[in-house]
Amino acid sequence: MSREGLAAIALRALPREVRVSQGDEMVSTLLDSSAGSRARLARELANLLRIGMRMRAGQTARMGPQRLLADSFCRGAILLMTLDLSTLLSQRLDGVEDPLLSWTSICVLGAILAVALIGAERLAGAAALTWTAARLPELVAHNHTFNGIAPTAVPLICFSVLIVNPRRRRLDLRRLAWLLAPAVLVAAYAPRGGSGPIAVIVSLAAILFVLVAALKIPTDPRLAIACALPATYVSLMVVGAPALPALLLSLGALLVLGVAIVRLWCLPEGF
Amino acid sequence: MELRTPSYFALASLIDGPLHGYGIVQRAAEISDGKVRLSTGTLYALLERAMAEDLVTAGEPYRQGGRKRRDYALTPAGRIALEAEARDLERAAWLVTRRLRATATAVMGR
To answer: Is there a contact between B22 and A18 if contact means CB atoms under 8 Å apart?
Structure first.
């Protein structure tokens, strides 16, 4: 690859506005500074990556750890609703008969997710909390063990954050495109109607999503925290199960959650 | 803005007039006797900070030999900050030198 190409890739580490305003100029300086020396080029590229990540971390840090944590829980709430909606839908489509799987309940959850997506998070949080509370007696009657009740604490916390500290976002209908996510999940994983090839693609996409979230921990841990919340929710359902995947999921979720939350308070504020 | 060695020499390279990014890298290396070798990322991060604090201004972009450039100039506030830092460094050097001289005979006499 050419030196210009490598410089352009390294430049991607910088925040977009810096790239737009100074990107070409920085590439010029980098190419001149490293002319005739591969070692100097490698040092320059590594330095650009380091500075870019530091600038991004600084931008995130300026929002303050409390706001960042609230943001993470708001995103986590959306992921939890998506997960719940996909699970309920796929069970219902699979013919499972249960009062918890009524079409009314599923449609209400879908509507709450839509409201949260377009940006009315406080309203969505209140509705989600009511929806969860209304289902709680049935849920307890269904399974009153630790694994049956404890996981509900995770969505309850996330929905409460949606009410108390929602993100200030403009209403935007384009975000409704996210509703394709539960549809794809149902198409991929529904026990009887699920499709093998789609399941493979969706699994790969999910792994990529989690990888991106993990890679972003040094500069913006919000996505990692948001992903760890549904993972914690699922791991609480399977806690005590002897299977290795359940243990790995529990430990992984707790580890990511811990590391990412600590990172929120350690982000460098500026260069 | 705290002037560490790289930012001190980057600003000092602008004393004689505006320079573009690579010009600053070369001039900083020259006036520091090769001790300061500014990397591109470090240079632009510190220029960004210096501009935010009104110590440096950036000119209009232009092309030179196929490369995109922009000249940076020291502002009066930047000059004052640089003078203050130079005075502090001079005083720190003087204090240490004086102490070294004062104790030199005692150490040598042991």
So the answer is: no
Mean pLDDT of chain A: 88
Q: pLDDT digits over B62-82, tens only?
A: 998 888 999 999 999 999 999
Which has the closest alpha carbon to A14: B53, B68, B42? B42
Give long-range contacts, CB 8 A cutoff, 24+ apart: A236-240: A236/A147, A236/A150, A236/A151, A236/A153, A236/A154, A237/A147, A237/A151, A238/A147, A239/A146, A239/A147, A239/A150, A240/A146, A240/A147
DSSP letter at A63 equals T
Could you count the other beta carbons within 10 Å of the beta carbon of residue A196? Answer: 8
At A189, is the pLDDT very low, low, confident or very high (cuts 50, 70, 90)?
A: confident
Residue A194 is predicted with a pLDDT of: 57
DSSP string, B43-92: HHHHHHHHHHTTSEEE---EEETTEEE--EEE-HHHHHHHHHHHHHHHHH
Q: Report the residue of B36, B44, B53 to disrupt the A interface, i.e. the one with the largest count of A CBs within 10 Å.
A: B44
**B11 close to B74: Cβ distance less than 8 angstroms:** yes
Contacts of A179 (CB under 8 A, 6+ apart): A110, A113, A114, A117
Whole-number Cα distances in Å, A156 to A136, A150, B70: 11, 10, 54
> Which of A54-58, A191-195, A245-249, B2-6 is the most confident on average?
A54-58
Chain A positions touching B49 (Cβ under 8 A) are 270-271
